[in-house]
Write a structure and sequence with these properties.
This protein is α+β, with helices and mostly antiparallel strands. The chain has six helices and five strands; from the N terminus they run αβββααααβαβ. FE2/S2 (inorganic) cluster (FES) binds next to helix 2 and helix 5.
């Protein structure tokens, strides 16, 4: 990972934006990565603007790495004001563009964000990543913690837990 990318990720996670569950969300999507076992959930609230439905705001929670947190923080800002169709046209690369190119082993981190976004918006993933809505993680579970289940083989996994109190309504 380049120093520039590392610095951008550190800046983004120093004060991640839109972190936390959203009580009155209109849509929620959860994605898990088959590559690393991390999970990410995104909540979305819509509003009407000039007769169009646009994304008013989005929030996220994740058991994920710093790259996923940084991309989710940027993505939730990036999709504000976009129509669902415009947001669905964005893949992981577009959502993480502000960070610059991600190294190959971090591309799935951005695809995790894309997966949660697209599940919330009801679309299929653009990128052919091994990203899915985890079977053990119903998208409507109250929090990401509620839907988290340990690996079936009982293996312990170290995860970075980013859970914060509910965001402002
Ligand atoms: Fe899996 Fe980043 S290492 S989301």
């Amino acid at each position: 990972m380049s120093d520039d990318l590392r610095q951008k990720i550190e800046d983004a996670i120093a004060e991640p934006k839109n972190l936390g569950e959203m009580q009155n969300a209109d849509a929620v999507g959860t994605a898990g990565s088959a590559d690393c076992g991390d999970m990410l959930r995104m909540w979305i609230k819509f509003r009407e603007e000039d007769g169009k439905k646009v994304i008013d705001r989005a929030t996220f929670q994740t058991f994920g790495c710093e790259t996923a947190i940084a991309v989710a923080s940027l993505a939730t800002q990036l999709i504000q004001g976009k129509t669902p169709e415009e947001a669905m046209a964005m893949d992981g690369q577009a959502l993480s563009a502000e960070l610059g190119p991600l190294p190959p082993m971090r591309i799935h981190c951005a695809q995790l964000v894309e997966g949660a976004l697209r599940q919330a918006l009801g679309g299929a993933a653009l990128t052919p990543a091994k990203i899915s809505a985890p079977a053990a993680a119903p998208a409507n579970a109250p929090t990401l913690m509620d839907s988290f289940s340990p690996a079936k083989d009982g293996a312990q996994k170290t995860v970075r837990v980013i859970l914060k109190p509910k965001t402002e309504q």
